[in-house]
Amino acid sequence: MTLAVIIDVDDTLCLTEAASFELENEVLAGMGRAPMSRAVHLSTWGEPLLDAMPHRSPGLDLGRFAELFPVLHQRYLVDGRLDVIPPENLDTLDRLVADGHTVLLLTSRTEAEVQHLLAPDHVLAGRVTGAYHQGNTRFRKPDPRVFDELLADTGFRPEQCVYVGDSPGDAVAAGEAGIRFVACLQSGVRRLDEFDPRYVTAAVDTFPEIIAALQRSSGQAGNG
């Protein structure tokens, strides 16, 4: 039986790759640097931001980028250009909660990049119980130990959890941790054939389809 539904943020709960590409290039422009290509951004998407930026912009003054990024990031949030969660995805979270699931976030974002999602007045309040990120986990995806703190804090066993994500690294982390994985392909950033099929329990084209995928998964588990 699934008790916890763990959800990735970027290009799973909300579609962020395209907006992040624009945001990061705007920061680079403010530093007098050439823009990165979309292909480079896509190839490093899913990595922690400050790990990815030296590949996206070789020779970058990473410290200066880290100083400038939060200011522009906040402006994008205020302007509604980033981290916009569609109403249908919020409805899906409500359905999960109503069905008795604990909803948690697990992301490669830094603590600063996820704080606004946990604010008391955010639309996720009352829907999401907690979030795990670079600030409170010792490991990073695709390392399966990224779930260690979440499992220890909540007391859930891996077989009681499902992780919903958009990248092959998400699948590897979940699968190696003994957690079922649902691939959400809505962003179009990844194709299903890029995932190791050993780790994929189900695949969905849109986030709301995870409800039916979970029901099918629970039925299969009950028949096993």
Can you walk through the features of this model?
The protein is an alpha/beta fold and 224 residues long. The protein folds into two domains: 4-15 and 84-223, Rossmann fold, CATH 3.40.50; 17-78, Orthogonal Bundle (DNA polymerase, domain 1). It is 41% helix and 11% strand. The chain has nine helices and six strands; from the N terminus they run βαααααβαβαβαββα. It has helices at 17-30, 38-43, 49-56, 62-78, 87-98, 111-114, 148-154, 168-176, 210-223; strands spanning 4-7, 102-106, 130-132, 161-165, 180-184, 202-204. Strands 3-2-1-4-5-6 form a six-stranded parallel sheet, with helices on both faces. β4 (161-165), α8 (168-176) and β5 (180-184) form a beta-alpha-beta unit. The longest helix has 17 residues, at 62-78. The radius of gyration is 17 Å and the shape is globular. The mean pLDDT is 94.
